[in-house]
Amino acid sequence: MQPDHHDKPLSADQHSRVAALLGREPRGLRAIPVADERGEPLVIRVASVVDDKPFPTLYWLVGTELSLRIDRLEAAGWIARLQDRVDASTSLQQAMNDDHARHREERSRFLSDAERQLLNDKGMQSALDERGIGGISEPSRIRCLHTWYAAHLVTPNIIGQLVDELLAEGEYLATD
Questions:
Q1: How many whole angstroms separate alpha carbon 147 and alpha carbon 11?
Q2: Contact call for residues 73 and 172 (beta carbons, < 8 A)
Q3: 4-34 per-position pLDDT tens digit
């Protein structure tokens, strides 16, 4: 599974597959940056402006199996466990800050001139500038493993690396 940083127009089949995976029509769908070896979408990229409003969550995890495995991690209490590790580590906090900064730059590169103008005209640019991975405004909070992992599959980040370790160890099977 390799990220594809080049936007290609989505085919009707790809669009339909994403809609099926989401269970609804995708809003602001722009690309499938990560797919598995069969071409099945794992991560989608959505517009940062949807219905003339800022939409800070750039990447969505749509792969069924990966989403289920991360659901299990969350259900087993891993957000809180990882948050405890972050809270106790200035190096993890700094890595998260760096990841958010890279993500904001990446999201900014995808904004069209028209989207940028609209956000500036409406005084809403800060809704993107002040939010990182998954639309998070508190840089040392995890909130959701799915959004961190979706972003990680495109551009590696520290929380995604920790999730990789948990998935490799089969930790999603653990319960409290």
A1: 25
A2: yes
A3: 545 678 999 999 999 999 999 999 999 999 9
Tokens 């990447």 label which residue?
Answer: 59
Residues facing residue 49 across a β-bridge:
54
Residue whose token pair is 């800022």: 54
H helix or E strand, kind and range, residue 42: strand 41-46
Distances (CA, A) of 42 to 30, 118, 120: 14, 30, 32
Task: From 22, 64, 63, select the one nearest 41 (Cα to Cα).
Answer: 63
- Tokens representing residue 95 in the block: 């890595």
Tens-digit pLDDT profile for residues 79-96: 999 999 999 999 999 999
* Rounded distance between C-alpha atoms, residue 132 and residue 147, angstroms: 10
Q: How far apart are CA 65 and CA 147, in angstroms?
A: 15
> For tokens 């800050």, what's the residue?
97
Beta carbons within 10 angstroms of residue 15's beta carbon: 15
DSSP H helices in 4-54:
12-22
Tokens of 2: 């390799």
pTM value is 0.90
Domain residue extents for the chain: 12-171
